[in-house]
Design brief:
Blueprint: E1 2-3, H1 7-24, H2 36-44, E2 49-50, H3 52-66, H4 82-108
Parallel strand pairs: 1-2
Length: 109
């Protein structure tokens, strides 16, 4: 998971670290880095990377489809710089989590 102010900033900024994460893990398909087209497709299909609203939408799709009441996102992957990790976490706590809590509560009740 990675949140930035804009979709483009999130997708472009996070990609090198996400790619490195797979390389470090020894994924055979990522020996030369995680393919950018696969990364973009994963985001399109729900990988929670993007603006606060995009991440809200990705989490809420899971809530609605799976009925989950907990979500855990891994932010610090591929040696993501501390400043990027903290900025993403701050956006998650201030802009994403409150909306997800409110919207999920309305589904329950």
């Amino acid at each position: 998971m990675f949140v930035a102010k804009t979709s483009q900033a999130a997708q472009e900024g996070f990609y090198p670290y996400y790619s490195r994460y797979f390389q470090q893990g020894g994924a055979p398909f990522a020996a030369n880095g995680f393919p950018r087209d696969a990364y973009d497709a994963w985001i399109q299909n729900g990988l929670p990377v993007g603006s606060p609203q995009q991440v809200i939408d990705a989490i809420m799709r899971r809530v609605e489809l799976l009925g989950i009441d907990r979500f855990m996102g891994q932010i610090d992957v591929g040696n993501l710089p501390w400043s990027m990790t903290m900025h993403s976490l701050e956006l998650y706590m201030t802009e994403v989590a409150p909306v997800v809590r409110r919207e999920a509560a309305s589904l329950v009740g």
